[in-house]
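MODEL INPUT / OUTPUT PAIR
PAIR INDEX: 1
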Amino acid sequence: MAHNLQTFKDIRFYLGKELAGIYPGPEITAMTNIIIRSVTGITKGHQLYLTDQKVTVEQASLIDRICRELKTGKPIQYILGETIFYECRIKLNSSTLIPRPETEELVDLVIRENNGYIGNIIDFATGSGCIAIAVASNLPGTTVTGTDISEDALIIARENALINNVGIIWLKDDILTPDTGAMEKAGIIVSNPPYVRNSEKKMMNKNVLGFEPHSALFVADSDPLLYYRGILNKAAKLLNPNGRIYFEINEMLGEAMFLLLESFGYSEIKIISDINGKERMIKGIKYAV
């Protein structure tokens, strides 16, 4: 089929036909734009009027391969090995979660509320490093530390920092141990730890369950706030007086998270909804006693 893909118009028709019934129409359009940009380097804006732009045989063959992989349910970000997150180019592999739009909203909240901040920031459970890198890129007066238990994730995170030309301190760390190791105190802590309860697996798409790292997603129903509590225990030693903490949260656990932050002595706790009206973020301030 690849030899019939000669122009952008051909590619759009081909992907639309081949992926119909597997993905919704708007998602196919979005993926097509991403695929053309990734393979040819031509951005979405330019694609719109370059419908007769020719592609090489090699490019057509690559697009055909990408299409076959998409049919298996494999996420496009893993097929291409990268994504764009808060205008940063982030490489991904099977050890790292695909960054979500709500995580971009968390980053945006941190950046908006701390414009001009000078000091240290810690990002726990950094994964691909997307939060740490986006924050460091947009708050130039900061020193950012990203931690993760997965050495494979930290390898990708280091690579992503180089790609985006930001200096980050990367540390291997287990959230569930109280030891803070080489970490410096910080004025801001941010994290998107595992928060999907095992019982919620049945509601998730097969492309998430089949390809994304379960250890970065899921937590036991018996203790769904396990990782947050671990971070808050570390924050008790690491967060400066009047420091701020920001979490991405399970939309069903906002009230429980509010009570947890309260129990650790945080004030001005606020649950924040994402663009879809779901309670997906929480923040608090640790005032000096």
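PAIR INDEX: 2
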Amino acid sequence: MILILLPWLALASIAAPAKTLLSKEQQFQFSLQKVLSNAQRPDVAAGMVVASPSRQDPDYYFDWVRDTALTMRSLIDLYELRHDKKLRALIVRWVQAEYHRQNEYALTGLGEPKFNVNGTAFMGPWGRPQNDGPALRAIAMIKWARLMLAEGETSYVERLLYKGVLPATTAIKKDLEYTAHHWREPSFDLWEEEQGMHFYTMLAQYTALVEGAKLARQLHDGPAAAFYEANAGQIGHFILTNFTDATVGLKVTTGKVASLGYKHSGLDVAPLLALLHTWPYQKLIPFTHKQVKVYLGALLEDARTSHTVNRAYANLGVAIGRYPEDRYDGYHTGKVGNPWFLSTLALGEFYCLQRGDKALAEKQFQRVLFHSDNGHMSEQFNRDTGFMQGAVDLTWSHNAVLTAMVRCGHVR
């Protein structure tokens, strides 16, 4: 880890000792191996992905539906580029595991957020349901279904992924039916802290139903396609009506049922993640939308002023956390939140996709490489010292590297 000086020294423009950082390409290879390792651990049921190898302080040794869906979406994108047989086998195992997991008992059914590593649902107290999971899983699987159909695997698709029968018997169909019937219900956000109607969740639901309708028509399930399209239209109207704001551009949550009580700014990195996690499909809120510009301006202004590392190392990209009032430091609540690797990389990915700005994207890459430790990326890095903290080798952190590298055109 590069030695980062105390904030007051850093602000006095005293340079940190030099260190050889990994290149983006080296980091990609390291992160890919970490993702694959977390997806193939010997004590974890086949097809599941642990959020982190960390088992205490914090214990992230579980499979979150959201995190795993995002991970597999990245691996599916990589398979599309490389047609690697090992990746194909891993994705097939994931589909099979999800197909069975959907039929396992869970307290909130398909809205259950996390599972034990043996494949059983977690039954302890938790923020549930989390209805972004089924939508994100559907988005990933829909792309996989399209790739498999292009390879002539129609029988495989109809057996496990999408068959137009009710009650649903296939993985995508089950997630689409759940989403279409439950999107009006408040759920917990992706940070698992507040219950309400969330921009992130609803944009994922909208996208899943729009793309699901296309797949349904392709597979001759016209009535279902019409049903999904109708619900997508209603979700889209709700989003455009309820989530724009003059101050922060895009609101994160409305209609709160369970609230933290101190999250008042309305500013959160979640809308940025929503735009990226639904790309290139949804056109409801494009990157060029005027509210996106307002939102990013507010997000960056807060990050630059809140985190000492941004002022100390202004030549690097902007380190971004979850939201201004964050009190989770990677170990405990009631502390002070920090920048996250995945949030910081998200901005770089956005720069590539929104305007092909490779220079700004490069600064975001250099920021995360600067705070990493020879390729290792935890969940967070301290806002003042820059040292990593929280869950070690967080799958989502490494997966964010994969996604950003692919979408920025650095991977072939």
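PAIR 2 NOTE: Residues 1-38+307-412 form one domain.
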